[in-house]
Structures are given as C-alpha cells and as structure tokens.
Amino acid sequence: MREKETTIYLGPQHPGITGNMMVKLKVAGDTIVKAETHVGYLHRAFEKLMEQRTWTQSFPIVCRICVPEPDPNEENLARAIEEIEGREVPERAKYIRVMVLELARLATYGLWMGGQSGSMGLYTMPQWTIGDRDYILDLFEELTGGRVYHMYIWAGGVRRDLPEGFTDRVLKTLDYLENRLPDYDNLLFNNALFQKRAQGVGIIPKDKAIEWGVVGPPLRGSGIKHDVRIDEPYEVYDKLNFIVPTSDGCDVWSRALVRRQEYEQSISIIRQVIEKMPKGDYYNKIPNPLTWQVPPGEAYVKTESARGEFGYYVVSDGSIKPRRVHVRGPAYVHGVSLLEKILVGANIADVSFIMNSLGTCPPEIER
Fold it and tell me: Is the overall model pTM greater than 0.90, yes or no?
C-alpha cells in the first residue's frame, strides 16, 4: 500500500537557517518527496535601492544583504568602486580590511556551530558559541560603533584607524577563542550522536558540485579545493600563509569539518595581519560624498565570505549614484536549487540540519 503524501511547512526558523525562510515539503511518512523554498520577503530590492542612492549611501544598504556577515558586502562594493575609479588604497587599510573580514568569518562560524547543534537539540552549544561570538562583536563595536552593521569598509580604505591598544584586545580575544576549541570539540565534533546524524546526510556529489554552482564550505566539503583568497587573491591575502581545508565525504559531516578547520585558519590569519600590519594612512579620502561622481565604467569583484564566493558587478555612468549593481552570492544556489535537490529522500528530522550546513542568507536571495 502506497503511503499517503502530505504537505507540511517548515519555518521560518532561525536555528536551521539565518533568516526568514520557509520550505514547503511534500512527505510520504517522514520521508521528503518534494521540497520547495519560499523566501521570507523580509529584506528586498537592495540592488534597486542602491541605484537610487549616492555611492556612499549604498554602504548602509549592502550590510543588510547578509546580516550575520555584512562585511564582505562592504568590501566588495568598495573594491568595485575603487577599480572603476582607479583609486589606490593604503597598505595599512588593506591589512585592516582583512582583519575585519576574518573576524566576521569567526563570528559567522560561531553562529553556524550554534545553529547546527540546535538543529539536533544540543542547546548547550549555541549558548556557548553565541556567547563567545559576543566578544567579537565587542571588538566591532569598539572599532566601528556598531555590533552587527558596521559601514566601516568603504571606498578608499576604512572609516577610521584602529583605536589605541585595539590589536592587543584582538589577540586576547583570539587566545580565548582558541582555548575554547577543545570544549567545542568535546561537545560537538567528537560527539557520537552528531557524527551519526551528520555522516551520509545531505550529500552533494563531487561530480555535480561545480555544475550546480556550489561554493564555499559546501564545495570544499565535497573535496574540491577552491577559495577566492588563494585562487584570485585580493587585499593582502597573497602576503599571508594559510591552507584551504577540504574533506571528501560530501555530507553535513564533511562541511562541519571544513568549517572547524577554517576557524583555526582565520585565527592564524588575523595574528599574521597584526604582526605584519604597517603604519601609515588608513584612508585615501574621497571628494564630498554628496557630490562625488565616479567615472563611467564597470567592474566585477569577488571575495570569499564564510558562505563562499561572493561577487559584485557595479556599473557607473559618471553620476553621483550607481547605474547598476548586481550581487552574486551563494544563497540563491544553496538555499533554492541545491536545497530542493538534496532534501528529496531525506528525513523530516534532518531538514534544518541540512539547511544549516549550506550556510544560506535569505535576504541575499531576494536582493
């Protein structure tokens, strides 16, 4: 006798995914037959909003494209403008930018660990990691004035120089986070329940990963070594030493291992940045922001966010605002086409587990 098929709605929910997003599921028993993503329409039309704002006014907008990790958006927009305008960025500003980007990566992975654990009912972990993430947000607040949205990286460099003693406080925070990793391992990564739940679940076949447009930890978790920081270096990543972790399991477990190793790599990168950071200017000042006209031209730049390759295509017609801005991020692929494929055949209990492993930001889908 064929099992009766039922339609259920999962979400919107935060433990399984970072934002307002729901998945419509058709199930037979507790097995998924079909999945359909519905984004939450919480933040919309960022690209068109930017085309109605001055160049500087666009920076507060792009932060909303991914709330947990806004800084790659700032960096991409700034670098695209700089490429069109031919504006040089001081070396010190480039080092500061890398430090900010890697701190944002650590904060994002803290949220990921909490969400991945919460998705299987292990609620101690999110209390630890989200609490520890607050120490990074303290640094952002001191540096930029904001804990979540920073508007700190902008065309020409960064908005202000590092406060006195800031790097010492960063190093102290890194020491604390590094010392917490054994606790994370004992609670989550060495947890037999987590390993059993994660292994063999949410498979992204290696021979399909690139064809499907997968990037970031999900791609590296399928055994493909690709990282924009290494393959097409920007800022000062070519002056730093770090590795790109990969794992061949193609499942939630492999993606977890990749992120766990990248956490350590980001700590190492920030320490190198602080050691090598030169003195000097932090900002190549732009003209009056209200009348600043960027010369006609176009540029496509990309960065490696915590969720994967993230690109901006920016066109200027020579006026005080962008002619066109297009954002290419991993969320549309990971949260729609990929998720709908790999949920088929999965158990209902694994839906948020799989969703979290893909690292999706719904506002980026409806940008």
Answer: yes
